[in-house]
Amino acid sequence: MDLSKILSIAGKNGLFKVVSQAKNAVIVESLNDNKRFPAFGHEKMSSLEEISVFTNGDDMALKEVFKAFHEKLEGKPAIDHKSDNAALKKFFLEMVPEFDQNRVYVSDIKKMISWYNTLLEQGLLDFSEEIKEAETAPEADVVTDAVTEIAPEPEK
Question: Which of 24, 35, 45, 131 is deepest in the core (most CB within 10 A)?
């Protein structure tokens, strides 16, 4: 799942997909209504790939938060982001128990839940690539070990 082309733009609701590059702007398309417009450099844009969540240990990438949602909800949508604050905090605590409750605000939780539901609805949450990478990575080590056993290093 590549979140580098999905943007959040300050002052605009929803998420936006990068469509093209213009001379002094980025052409984006709203995931909500598919309208395209230019987003200029002076606007604060954040790629979802770059966003992370404060935890009690190391910060957690937003992709990992979405993966936790997807696994624990078995691919179903999350609760409504307009739910009351207590329900949102309880839900997020169940999904990401290690999040820092002093530095992650309810407004942040609302955004993440809204973004997750939008990406799920648009079919942009695909964790199969990561599963394939995890499955193929150990095999590469096995092949390397086998080659070393067949042709050991020469003695000096």
Answer: 45
CATH class for the domain made up of 6-48: mainly beta
DSSP states of 62-91: HHHHHHHHHHHTTT-----TTS-HHHHHHH
The pair of three-digit structure tokens given for residue 156, joined into one six-digit string = 């000096």
The distance from CA 121 to its chain's CA centroid, rounded to whole angstroms, is 14
Question: How many secondary structure helices (H) and strands (E) does the chain include?
Answer: 4, 7
The phi, psi pair for 57, rounded to 5°, reads -110, -125
The answer to whether the CB of 42 falls within 8 A of the CB of 12 is: no
pLDDT tens digits, 84-126: 999 999 999 999 999 999 999 999 999 999 999 999 999 988 8
Model-level pTM? Answer: 0.78
Six token digits for residue 29: 């398309």
Average pLDDT over residues 21-29: 93
Domain spans in the chain, listed from the N-terminal domain onward? 6-48, 53-128
